[in-house]
Amino acid sequence: MRAVLTWRDKAEQCIYDLAFKPDGTQLILAAGNRLLVYDTSDGTLLQPLKGHKDTVYCVAYAKDGKRFASGSADKSVIIWTSKLEGILKYTICRVSKSWPIISSLHLHPVFPGLHKAIRVVATETFVVCRIIIYSCLLLRHNDSIQCVSYNPVTHQLASCSSSDFGLWSPEQKSVSKHKSNSKITCCSWTNDGQYLALGMFNGIISIRNKNGEEKVKIERPGGSLSPIWSICWNPSSRWENFWMNRENEDAEEVIVNRYFQEIPSTLKSAVYSSQGSEAEEEEPEEEDDSPRDDNSEEHNDILAVADWGQKLSFYQLSGKQIGKDRSLNFDPCCLSYFTKGEYILLGGSDKQVSLFTKDGVRLGTVGEQNSWVWTCKVKPDSNYVVVGCQDGTISFYQLIFSTVHGLYKDRYAYRDSMTDVIVQHLITEQKVRIKCKELVKKIAIYKNRLAIQLPEKILIYELYSDDSSDMHYRVKEKIVKKFECNLLVVCADHIILCQEKRLQCLSFSGVKEREWQMESLIRYIKVIGGPPGREGLLVGLKNGQILKIFVDNLFAIVLLKQATAVRCLDMSASRNKLAVVDENDTCLVYDIHTKELLFQEPNANSVAWNTQCEDMLCFSGGGYLNIKASTFPVHQQKLQGFVVGYNGSKIFCLHVFSMSAVEVPQSAPMYQYLDRKMFKEAYQIACLGVTDTDWRELAMEALEGLEFETAKKAFTRVQDLRYLELINSIEERKKRGETNNDLFLADVFSYQGKFHEAAKLYKRSGHENLALDMYTDLRMFEYAKDFLGSGDPKETKMLITKQADWARNINEPKAAVEMYISAGEHVKAIEISGDHGWVDTLIDIARKLDKAEREPLLMCAYYFKKLDNPGYAAETYLKIGDLKSLVQLHVETQRWDEAFALGEKHPEFKDDIYVPYAQWLAENDRFEEAQKAFHKAGRQQEAVRVLEQLTHNAVVESRFNDAAYYYWMLSMQCLDIAQDPAQKDAMLDKFRHFQHLAELYHGYHAIQRYTEEPFSFHLPETLFNISRFLLHSLTKDTPLGISKVNTLFTLAKQSKALGAYKLARHAYDKLQGLQIPARFQKSIELGSLTIRSKPFHDSEELVPLCYRCSTNNPLLNNLGNVCINCRQPFVFSASSYEVLHLVEFYLEEGITDEEAISLIDLEAPRHKRENKWQEITSNNSQTLRLDETVDSMGDDDPFTAKLSFEQGSSEFVPVVVSRSVLRSMSRRDVLIKRWPPPLQWQYFRSLLPDASITMCPSCFQMFHSEDYELLVLQHTCCPYCRRRIEEPSP
User: Fold this and answer.
1) What is the CA radius of gyration of the chain?
2) pTM greater than 0.85
3) 419 in Cβ contact with 406 (< 8 Å)
4) Which residues form the Intraflagellar transport protein 122 homolog TPR domain (predicted)?
5) How far is it, in rounded angstroms, from Cα 405 to Cα 392?
6) Distance, CA of 1254 to CA of 1242 (rounded, Å)
7) pLDDT, tens digit, 9 for 90 and up, residues 172-228
8) 822 vs 816: CA distance, rounded Å
9) b/e sequence 257-266, b meaning 16+ C-beta within 10 Å
10) Which of 69, 188, 205, 657 has a 20 to 30 A CA-CA distance from 474?
11) Could you give the CA distance from residue 265 to residue 1074 in angstroms, rounded to a whole number?
């Protein structure tokens, strides 16, 4: 640190106090009874101000810069405006203990204009105060004014005299005065303006609040023997920008209120004894042996106190002392802080101003004077200091703080706050602070060593570990000795002191081991590395000589000598080249071995070699950074500061007091190497740090230069897999023996987009086909045609095909089709036309193609079908003779007539036609036709499977009428299949089973409708018969969908209605054992009760009659639907389910069906009798007898005789007839079920010929003729098998 005198002036009287305007443009001095106003820029006296009658002791400027105040020995305080205008003087005396009043008013002669504006009237006292308080004001104390101070926030003015102090603000009507027990020598407000510290002549410090009430009292040792002469609160960082950001009074109020909320506004009253605090304070160590970060929080309010006991002390707002008293060895007259509080200025009886740290460590002298220094202040926000002396001298200094620092590779150590050392890792940005608590004079750093020179000693630090990122230092050695040196260098085991022309090598214990005497002044010294204890030093002298010295060798080695003085030196990484910056700002580079000057560059102030690249250096100067590689031209870019290191792509730059690592792309030198095709050197430069674009350019240049290794590394950097694959393929080809560089370069050019150059190289290397492939792949067909010329037609055709492919890919299908047709690629043309639905194009292509070209014709047919043009598809299939595809086409388009016609001509396609036809019929509910189709196709199993599924669906959906029909269809289908001997038994079983199910579901359909629907379509007798039929038929398992509850419920209700009470009771009893739906519950319970009131028998009218044995059968028949006497099965009507008067008979063995029918058709004549009379003729007489026991048939009917059977037998004895019996039968009385094989026909004889019975010729179900005719009229078909009446019987 050094002080430079900027300007000096001298007044006639002692300078007791001074104050800067907050913006630093003006300086106000108290000199005699005047105030002197100076321009701080050049020391010009702007204006003297006269207003006091006696010596002015103090002056203070308000923080807002609007006004300042002066205090004088004339017991008055004057408020001045910032324009140096107006003084108003009046006298204040105390008339009571509570408040003073204005007793007299005096106008200064310089303000005659105010005479008219102000009148003095006793009753108007306060009005006068209000008028004049905002212009200029004079306040009178009882004694001379010793000090004044403005509140930094509220602009409240504190004025102190020997016996009292007053507090005044523009808003107040009066001045608040407070008595003091001792003379007040100095005062200072806290940063927040809440508290005022008063320094007393008796050695006491009183801390008051804004109202003047004492909150803290500090009693210092020495008492009145150590009067307090100067005090000052430290500037706080939280108030640093407070006044700079102010724009108006409202903003000020808001900011002030915000800060008041953060800082306590009151303190508990307390009295502190400084002796007790000092006794408890430990003596601090002289240096901190271990490094630590400076993370401790700065105290908001610290009071610095200087007394004439020649001590400097620091106190907290609470009154507690910080640290111990610092001895000054002179009487201090003034104390002030720098704007940011980092330093303290002290002046006094030692006739100089001294600079101290904020902790009280003396750093040096600012300026020596010829008399006592009464006042000194720092210009706001600057390093300028003004000093006022007893002899009237005014000195204005600029403080220049020199940079004390050291650098080794990526570690930078520098001085901070004059007493601390901060070590910064330039790569990781880590920092560590070492507190030395003394002035740091020199710093040196090397590897894991750090040397710090203090005024009385040198400290040697070392790292805790060898980790490159370790930032923890510890003290290794202390050399307790005062050294004077210009430069300091540290090595592994030594320190080197530079003193003018002499170098001294000392061990860490302080023993001088070696000394070198130079011919001229040493201008630069640097450690260039080496083994521990044998490091080399690079030394530059003022006479231009450059030496290399080893610390273990007495002899210096002269490297070279130049004509100009050395300012900066550096040696390349391999120690083959030397860079020198001379006093003419020229950078010179030498070859160390040959002493040859390689090149020189102007405008340099510092230079550094790249530690990772031999041929690269950088130098700074003129606001530019210059990077030079080898002998190439210099690359410049703007940069402020000095270059001190160059490591890889990072350049370490010192600008003012900060060191920064600048990331500099090495693009320019890399391109310089590329221009000379020096690819490996360019790659080395790129490794130091270039952009991705630069890496790609390097890769491309190396690839074009066929330097594949460098190109491969560069493409790996930018992760370009495409080019890496190219390089790998070329390397593989080279391994296989290919040596044609033109071919390799052609591949490279094609990858880079240089297609014409690539084509030329392909042609030159004899690979025209590769050029053609390249052009076609790129869709450059015109270039391809030009390249091809009038060559091979095959290649031309191939080119057209590829062009068509391209047209197809770019969505130009029309052009693609035309090109494909011209190239003979019909398949691709057909594919595009078909995909776009161009039927006309397909027709043209199909008709132009020869029938031998099956593949494209088949594609045409496929697209015709797809585009719903089956006619053209059929034409195409016929053209190529593909009948099978034609059949499939007719089937798919359901053109059955064409398909059947084709099937007639070609029976081998019958299955291909009828199977899909049958499936289509089944899907359209045309099951009879579907069965015929299945039969024709020979797919019986499929027919059965389809019908079974349909039947199941009908049952699940409660369509029982349909279910009966489907089951009948199934049974007939099984009967057809049974013609196969291998499946006869199984199919006949299924036939009977399905016939039985069909009968059950046909009957249950009426029951289901009766129970589920609100209205019944059947007579009660019919429902009664059906429910009886179902009850007798459901002796075993109940089929799916048929409900016993519904059946019994119907039987119970109809039996009760028809008088079959016994049967009804039985039905109700059966229902009690079943799970009854809720909707039937009440009806069944009621019916069960009411049936008990009926007689326990059935109506005889309902009892069924067996027409074979004339036996009345019970309504509830345990044997089922057979006679209980003769076991003859009943034949029921398929509509009313009444027992029909039919008896089944069988043919004698040996009689065929055809013979039986012929015999029946003969119908032998019978004797006709009108009555029952019988004529009996004998030899002697002729008798006529009436026989009433013979029925209408008479005994002459042979069939009636066959109806007899053995009574009591449990076996059923069928009726078997002979030829004679058959001959006697009438054709109209016999009904025949003509079952197809393998079933036998069934014969039934009507015993009541007058009652007509009709049998359906399809399903062989029996009906009363009247019922059948009615049902046919309703449904136009058989109600059972749904055979249309107009259809012929099978």
Assistant:
1) 66
2) no
3) no
4) 666-1046
5) 40
6) 15
7) 767 788 898 899 999 999 988 999 999 999 999 999 998 889 999 999 888 888 899
8) 10
9) eebeeebeee
10) 657
11) 97
